[in-house]
Structures are given as structure tokens and as C-alpha cells.
Amino acid sequence: MSVIKNSNYGWFISHETLINEIYSSVDSSATSFQLKPDLFEIVQPYKPAKSKHNLKRKTNEEDFGAEVRCVEKLYELFRNENEEIFAESQLEVRNDAAVTAAATIYDESGKNLIGDVVGANPDGPIVKRIKNSDFLFPQNCKFYGKDVADMSTHLDEKYDLIVLDPPWWNKYIRRKRKHTEHGYDMMYNEELRNLPLENYLSKEGLVAVWCTNSGQHVRTLCDEIFPKWGLEYVGKWYWVKVTKSGVPVCPFSEPPRKQPFEQIIFGRVQSRSLADPACDKLVVSVPSALHSHKPPLIRLLERFLPNSPTCLEIFARYLLPNWTSYGKEVLRFQHESLYEKLNR
Questions:
Q1: Whether the predicted pLDDT of 183 surpasses 50
Q2: Closest Cα to residue 266, out of 256, 276, 253?
């Protein structure tokens, strides 16, 4: 199980464990694959970058400041209740192994991007050779390596759960990545709003959106995008990113400085009869050093879904068993560079 610890305040989960379980037996043989462990060797907080923001407080930042302090307090309570799940602090060790592994993998997976592809694996986990690289495919998956603007051309099912990790517009990151090899297209809020998600939700539909800590993005999502999709706002969870010893990867700070958490915003269709996710829970984990390599949420969300649910991830960069995945880089994190082969 990827859920290592249940708590009154949320959960401690292991992204690494869940993925390793998926590929514990590949091609019906004694071969297994695991994510390269160095990706999760986050043993020290990252040094904060020098902020170029104007740090003058604004009204919305004051509101978010109160939210930051609330999340910080919740995490303090969570950690005090669950000290035994964290490793001892390694003050003399840095995150060099994780940073080096991530840079190498991102370079290799970027050179071997497979785009404009549609496929499925109706069987157990397998490895397939595509353009001189091996890619892993989990059990019973479907995937569309297509632009989200073309969803209506390819998707024709209803889903009980839709997860999105949008490339939210960010002026600072856009400037930073404008001339880099690994830049990606960011999306204006209006473009996200225009996605026809309302056409793909079942009567028990639940939507989970990974969101930045931008107040503008959160407000637009809840007040404009969700209503267009026919959704009611449910509440939010906070993904708190920590080192292996439980220290947040950066300090909880006054806005607009960087925070050690991201938000997961939930919306529901009005016809839902199932329970909705409780508000203000923490999802605590050691993050992958790879950019946009979010932990799967299915073990936490399955209790809010019908039996044998239909699930879709949009802007996906990896595949999951029994899911449909859609995105321009849908196979990126299936590339062999992320994994080690084990012979049991």
C-alpha cells in the first residue's frame, strides 16, 4: 500500500512504494522494476531562491497568510503524532543524488518523447520497445498522447474521477524557462475553462485539480471554471512535501514566498450520492525530485468512488493501472530512464 500512515490530520503516503508495487511482476515473469531510489533521496530542505517578488503585503496575500499558518499548524500536529514514520535527520548529507538523478532522467526522457500516440494495454504490466527505448505499461491502461484541445476528438466515455495537473500560467516561471530545452506550454485560465469536462463526468463524478498557491488561480477555478464544468466546490487538501526526516522541503513563509505545499481542489457533480472528500486534510510525502512528478491519489480517493470506477487523468505524464491518461507527454515518466530492473 502507498498509504503508510493514517492520521486525524491526513495521510503519509509513498509515491515510490505504489509505483514499485505496480511493476513488481512484469511480462508475467520474475522480472520487476522499481523507480530509481535516488529520486526520493530528499534529505535536506532546499535552499530558498532569492525572491524577485515585491514583498509588500496585499489583501489577498494576508488572507493566504492565515491559510499558510493553518497548514503549518496542522502539519506540526501531524508530525508530533507520527514521529516514528520519519527517518533520523542527516545533517551532513545533501540532496545531490536526487538532483543529479532528476537532471539525467529529465534529459533522457525528454530526448525520447513519444507524441501523437494512442494505445492501450489490456493485459498485465509489460515492457515495449519504441524508437530505441523501453517503456513500461501498467495493467489495463489506456493512453492518448494528444493535445488537450483535441479531447472531444478522442474521448467518448464518462468518468467517475477526473484528475488534472494543469500547467498553470506563471509569468516568473515562463521567463525562467523561455530559453530552456525543457520548457512547456503554460495555460491561461480561460483555456482551462474551455475544456469540455462537463461532457465526460458520470452521475457520481468527482474532479480533483492540482493547483498552485496563487489566489487568482484558486478563485478562478472555484468561481468560474467549476461552474462551467457543472461542478460544485467541495473543498481542498494540501500536499505537504517533506524530507525523509519530516522537515518541510522549504519553510512555511509569509506570502508571496514559496511554500512547502500545493493544493488539491475538489469539485463534484450535483447528482453525486457518494460521500465527498473531507476538507483541509494533509497529504504528506517525500516528493520525487522530478518536476511535475506528482504522487498518485487513487489510494486516498477510492473510498469516494463507486466500485470499479472509471478514472481519467488530464495533462498526464505517466500511466496508472485501470486508468485512462491524456496529455502531450503521456509516456514521459514511463521511459526506462526512471526505472531499475530487478531479477527476483
A1: no
A2: 276
Angle CA 141–199–304, to nearest 5: 60
- In whole angstroms, what is the distance from residue 138 CA to residue 23 CA? 7
Q: Report pTM.
A: 0.94
Cα of first residue to Cα of last residue in the chain, in angstroms, is: 20
**Cell triple for 30:** 520474475
Phi and psi for 266 in degrees, rounded to 5? -110, 140
Mean pLDDT of 243-265: 96
> Which residues lie below 8 Å from residue 174, measured CB to CB, with a gap of 6+?
186
**79, containing H or E segment:** helix 59-81
Kindly report the number of other CB atoms within 10 A of residue 283's CB atom. 20
pLDDT digits (tens, 9 = 90+) for 14-28: 999 999 999 999 987
> 300 vs 18, 56, 131, CA distance in Å?
12, 38, 36
Look-up of cell digits 500511466: 319
> Pick from 259, 285, 258, 280: which is nearest to 15 by CA?
285
As beta bridge partners, residue 342 has 32
